[in-house]
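Record type: monomer structure entry
Structure origin: computed from sequence
Chain ID: A
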Amino acid sequence: MHSKKGVIELQFNWIFILVAGALILIFFVVIVQRQEKVSENKRDVDIRGKLSTILTSAKQSTGTMFVIKIPDTEIKFDCSGYSVGGTAPFQLDESFSPSRLKSSQQNLLIWAMDWSLPYKVANLQYITSPDIKYVVIAESQAVNDLKKILPQNITVAMVQHDQVQNLESTNNYMIRFIIITREGLPTYTPVTLTLHPSISRMKDDDVSAIQIMIDEPGTDNELDGHGRVALFRKGGSSFSATPSPVNKPYIKKELLLGAIFSDREETYDCVSKRAFEQYALTSEIYQRRTGALFDLYQDNVDPMNRGPYAGFCDSFVIYSQASDLIDGLNVFLDNILGNKQDIYNTAYGSGIGENLRKMNKDLLRRSCPLIY
């Protein structure tokens, strides 16, 4: 009996030891996992803070390409802004980017351009990765103009339309096809592209295309006028014709670049809307400014209607005319797609924009405060 009892006690002790050991092991595993999670959260918060500071600073320096080092992490971007891991997104207003940013080289490419219509509206910022390949269909006559506005640091491939099927994936985590069309040029669309099997096997979200339709070419660069863009996403082995992408407006090359680097239609909509809202706000500020300058310098016979600085600027009537011109700009903003030509012409055509530039030159010659 004693022998049998001893065996049972021994078995119980081993079971107890195994259970206790397992509980202790689980306890330490949980502690390690929690500590690892805390460390990751701390790292994400640290990256987020530094990234926000760098991007905000870089946005103020137009025309300069910045190559910044980032840790081995993925940055997500949508209408709410940039986010790292589980951190809250931070907003940079008029900033365009792919939906996911990462780099095997741990580099990000950042630059900004001055968007003016005709006065400065905003600095439009662009962020991308050298691990994203931009494939330009080379038949269009505007390809050389596209080369002029794309930064040299990004990964670009020029391919003839009938050679796209031979273009293999080279381990880029995203691929973006670019087609430029204009009246009188070949009317290729992303739907007509035949993709290489290695690209067809990529996730649909990682392969996208943009068709640029030039409605009015710019003077020095065809892409610096105005037109429309349509954004496509891969569906299986090709770009789907249905649902048909909705045409989105662009005005000037700076906004067009935003469409090129945005791989989500809703994100381009969101950021470009902010840009046009800033345009409306800037126009309102200049409209009020010119009205105030007129009140300041007006020099009428009636002493009750003379400004406090009457006689200091003999072109004071220009301010009233400029105020009326700028006030009319907001009419076009109600329907951007339908009125993009009007908006462009106000800035760079023979209409309001040209008149404002002539007025500015006249004011400068007379040593009067400028309109903008």
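Annotation 1: The chain has three domains: 2-107, 131-263, 272-365.
Annotation 2: The first helix runs from residue 2 to 58.
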